[in-house]
Amino acid sequence: MTPRIPPPLLALLAALAMRWLAGSMPVARLVSGELRWLGAFVAVLAATMMVSAALQFRRVRTTVNPMKPDTTTALVTSGVFAYSRNPMYLGLALILAGWAFWLGALTPWLVLPLFTTAITALQVLPEERALARLFGRDFAAYRRTTDRWFGRFTASR
User: Fold this and answer.
1) Whole-prediction pTM value?
2) Cα atoms found within 13 Å of the Cα of residue 101, Cβ hemisphere only
3) Which of 128, 131, 100 is nearest to 114 (CA)?
4) Which of 25, 32, 54, 108 is the most exposed place for a label (fewest CB within 10 A)?
5) If we measure between CA atoms, which residue out of 26, 24, 45, 151 comes closest to residue 94?
6) Rounded Cα gap, residues 70 and 123, in angstroms
7) Are 111 and 17 in contact (CB under 8 A)?
8) CB 102 within 8 A of CB 94
9) How far apart are CA 114 and CA 92, in angstroms?
């Protein structure tokens, strides 16, 4: 399966759904007032991680285009990629978490697991298949040491 929905568009749709839920079905207020800025802080950190990942791709002259995973020319495993095989998608999810925090209601949080499930099925899995074809053993070794979303494993685990 080839990715068909650009991840930023999927994130935007999720953000709009979160806003709609917060306005039409807030259920419970979790955060208000000054604490809402913590959501913006999380979003800024996530955006910084995404920019770092994009710069790493540029440095090794491989594609940043998520719609064409078969055009990847290098397997990046250092920097933020040492902690997440998908720091850009993790960044999008964290931006959405920051947005949910900013909105302050409980219902926007329902969208986050839907987003991560959708981005995994529609984007991450096709990318992983492409990387396995392109980089074989190197990608297999990377998969054993670095989690899809977040975490670095050691040989003892």
Assistant:
1) 0.91
2) 16
3) 100
4) 32
5) 45
6) 12
7) yes
8) no
9) 13
Q: Which residues contact 90 (CB under 8 A, 6 or more apart)?
A: 46, 49, 84, 149, 150
Q: Which two tokens stand for residue 112?
A: 């986050």
Q: What is the pLDDT of residues 45-55, one digit of tens each?
A: 999 999 999 99
Q: Using N-to-C axis directions, what is the helix angle for 111-119 and 87-103, rounded to 10°? A: 170
Q: What is the CA radius of gyration of the chain?
A: 17
Q: Which two tokens stand for residue 28?
A: 């419970």
Nearest to 94 by CA among 18, 39, 145: 39
Chunked mean pLDDT (size 10), the chain, 157 residues: 85 98 85 84 96 96 91 95 96 97 93 97 95 97 94 54
* Residue range 12-52, pLDDT digits in tens: 999 999 999 999 987 787 777 778 889 999 999 999 999 99
The pair of three-digit structure tokens given for residue 91, joined into one six-digit string: 């960044």
